[in-house]
Amino acid sequence: MKLGILSRSPRAYSTRRLKEAAAERGHTVRVLNTLRFAIDLSGDEPALQYRGKPLGDYDAVLPRIGASITFFGMAVVRQFEQMDVYTPTPANGIANSRDKLRSMQILSRHEIGIPATTFVRDRADVLPAIERVGGAPVVIKLAIAAVTSFAG
């Protein structure tokens, strides 16, 4: 099996161990820097370029996408998915894991035990939310809008 590990850190312990374990099982393994891909959408078939050259065929990819490159990393993983390359961690799984509220919603929906949790937008809604979920102890997520300023 030809396996690609999507990682910006080929020397990181986890990346090295994945590569070693796959090689021990007889797989051909290459660590691919996620940021060196180009996604081509103009042709009839989805394609990827790696370091300026067409990417060969892979049987599977293991994403090791750091939080700082989530958006681009998910795009690369989605492109592999479009190319019918197997990945145990699909792009939507990465997205869900990076969004704490979404992950809690998924766990709750599938009746996986989570602490009493409430998510509110305004500080004034905190006490009513605590009462609504049955009182303390409770996990409270308060969404505060990010303020961006531009110096002009």
Task: Describe the protein's architecture and organization.
- The chain has 152 residues and is α/β, with parallel strands linked by helices.
- The protein has 2 domains: 2-96, Rossmann fold (3-Layer(aba) Sandwich), CATH 3.40.50; 110-142, no CATH class.
- The chain has 5 helices and 8 strands, in the order βαβββββαααβαβ.
- The protein has helices at residues 13-24, 70-82, 91-98, 100-109, 126-132; strands at residues 2-6, 28-32, 37-40, 47-50, 53-54, 60-63, 117-120, 139-142.
- A 3-stranded parallel beta sheet has the order 2-1-6, sandwiched between helices. It has a 3-stranded antiparallel beta sheet with strand order 3-4-5, covered by helices on one side.
- Helix 5 links the parallel strand 7 and strand 8.
- Helix 2 (70-82) packs antiparallel against helix 3 (91-98).
- It is elongated, with a radius of gyration of 21 Å.
- Residues 146-150 have low confidence and may be disordered.
